[in-house]
Each structure stands twice: as structure tokens, then as C-alpha cells.
Amino acid sequence: MQTRYSQELIPITGWNREETFRFFSTFSQPYFNVHTELDITPLYTYCKANKLAVSLGYMHATLQAARATENFCYRIQNGEVVKYNGLDLSSTVLKDDLNVGFTHFPYHETLEDFCRQGAEIIAEVKKSTKLFNGYQGVDLLHMTTLPWFKFKGMEHAFALNGEEAGVPKLGFGQLEIEEDKVILPLSIGLHHALADGYHMHLFMQNLEAVVATYKS
After folding, report:
1. What is the distance between the alpha carbons of residues 10 and 143, in angstroms, rounded to a whole number?
2. Is CB count within 10 Å lower at the N or C end of the chain?
3. Separation between Cα atoms, residue 131 and residue 95, nearest integer Å
4. Helix %, strand %, coil % for the chain, to 5?
5. Of the CATH numbers 3.40.50.300, 3.10.105.10, 3.50.30.10, 3.30.559.10, which one belongs to the domain with range 7-212?
6. Interval 44-57: pLDDT, tens
7. How far apart are CA 102 and CA 125, in angstroms?
8. What is the pLDDT of residue 153?
9. What's the superkingdom here (predicted)?
10. What is the dihedral of CA 42, 48, 50, 51, to 10 degrees?
């Protein structure tokens, strides 16, 4: 299986999640979803001041937070658990023909570099006729945005027994401007054999910390 990042095997026997893993691995639909929101005012202000796309801004912040949350890096491959030592993301891009293209966005340390390359990728994919654009391995996050209407949550379509088992699924809704705050609705789906609600909490803490770095 082609991957961009190295991986390490997590032995299931003796793992502190062994019983939980074996229990949820028997489920026909093992993903659970939580719908929440995040105040991204500092990130929004920074992006606007520096002429960066806000959507790419919160994509980058999300990727940083996921990479810092160990359980978001777990995947199930051939019945075994592996941890990837890095993540990129695959997000939907609305093309000129009004169909979506699943599109690879490589990780960059800086927001500016991520947004610069991301804008180039989006411009190219908009002209594409392909469904898949760029790398589509398992060491990714799956992400989509519904910017056209108020958003109270969503669930993704996915193959239950495919090679992507364990890939986190994230969805974002229309930004809500509330006086001096900018609120980002988001939906998070995780494979319950690999993570629980507590790990979602850790991810949200990491995401809040990333956003806070943009406070002036």
C-alpha cells in the first residue's frame, strides 16, 4: 500500500484498547459522529489581514491538531492497527462543472506555505474532470465543506471494509458571524475501535490551541 508517511505497528494483544478494539471491530457501522463548533476569530482575522483563504486556514489548523492527536493517526490495515507518523488531508473541491473532486493537500509547517500551495491546487482541480486528484492514501484526513447554508452536522459516505478503515471524517459548515466572533461549525467522525469521545476532546483542545496562536 502506497503511503507518504512512515508507520509503526501497534500490537493489539496487550494494548490498553484491546478489548474496546475487538468489541467495536465487530460492528457493521463502527463510526461515531459528533457535531460541534469552534470560535476561530483569531485565525479568521489573521487570514483576512494577510489575504489568505479562510477555508484553507481552518483546514491547516485542523490538520495540525489531528497530527498532534495520537488516535487520529491510527488506521486499521489487514486487521492490524498501525500508527502513521504524519498526516496530509484529502478534501472536496467544487469544480467548474459543479461536481466535486477529492483532492490531496500536502501538509506544510506554516499557514502561508499551506495556503499558497492550496490555492494553486484548487485552481488546477477546478478545471479537472477527474474525481480523484493527487495522492489518496490512508495517511490522510477526509474533509469536506458545506459553505452555502447553516450547518448542524453531517455524516460521510464511506466504505466500511475498505482500505481507508479508521480515517477520520470531518465536515465544516457555513461560518457564523456573531458580533465580534466568527464561529465554525464542524462535524467529526471517528472509528470507535480506535478512538472515543475523550480523544475527540483532545483533538478539540489541540485545535483551540492552534487557533489561539493567531491572537494578536
Report:
1. 25
2. C
3. 10
4. 30, 30, 40
5. 3.30.559.10
6. 999 999 999 999 99
7. 9
8. 79
9. Bacteria
10. 150
